[in-house]
Design a protein that fits this description.
The protein is an alpha/beta fold and 313 residues long. 34% of the residues lie in helices and 20% in strands. α2 packs parallel to α3.
Length: 313
Amino acid sequence: MSIRIMMILVISLLITACGDFGLFSPPQAFSEKTLSGSGTDKVALIHITGVISSIPKEGIFNSHPSILQEVTAQLRLAQKDTSVKAIILAINSPGGSVTASDILYNEINRIRMEGNKKIYTLMMDVAASGGYYIALASHSIMAHPTSITGSIGVIVTRISIAETLKSIGIETSTVTSGAMKDMGSILRKPTPEETNIVRAIVDSMNTRFQHLVTENRPQAQTHTLYKDGRILTANQALDMGLIDSIGYFEDTLTQIKKELNIEKVKVVTYRRTDLPDGTEYSNMSMKLGEERFIPEAFSLEAGFHYLWLPNML
């Protein structure tokens, strides 16, 4: 096959992708889509998928709103709709930045405190660290039998290339206005004092996380194993009081109908693109396409994270 023919094929594939996923076009406004059921009472299903971040998703040709923006926008649409009686958060996330996780927790908790809508969390594959953090704001937490959760705590990771540079004969020189101005530089190893400063910040942020667990899940106070940051199975989390039940989407829906005394509900979601034959497992809130080419690990922002990090770096 000639190079010219190969180039034509590649361009054709890109044009097809653009038509399907809007690689060159900006995101469209959210619109409500019915997934199942009928009636005047609605249950809004909102997917929280991927690393929780305030950074837009960068693609090959353009960028799309961050997960923080996308989820917040959907929460506010559901909040304004008086027909929405409950919100289901389908969480499939290893967590993310401390601040983005905390903002989402605050958004969800604000809706809960208003008392007009019940918030239910349904854990998917993973709802760990920041994923669990935001679940704490819901009235009830259900996990699938095979869900992974826990990883309650804080992590900050830095890379040092000092030894590598030294091995190839490169020396660096930095002039700073203060002894700690270049703290965290990859060009040298951290000093013990710098490590202690970072440790104090990590401990402070972890204290906030642990406090929210105690405040929202008082039944978990008799257990201590989760405090070391370990991941947990659904059964372990249930035994520790970190979740309320184990089941599937239909079980969450049954629980909502029973607790709100509703016979019929219409399950809706918010999407920027239409998806024929969509189900409760469809996650098409954002345009797809270039996101699949850019691993999230490469766009992970520096700083402190409520994040389970088994294979992200």
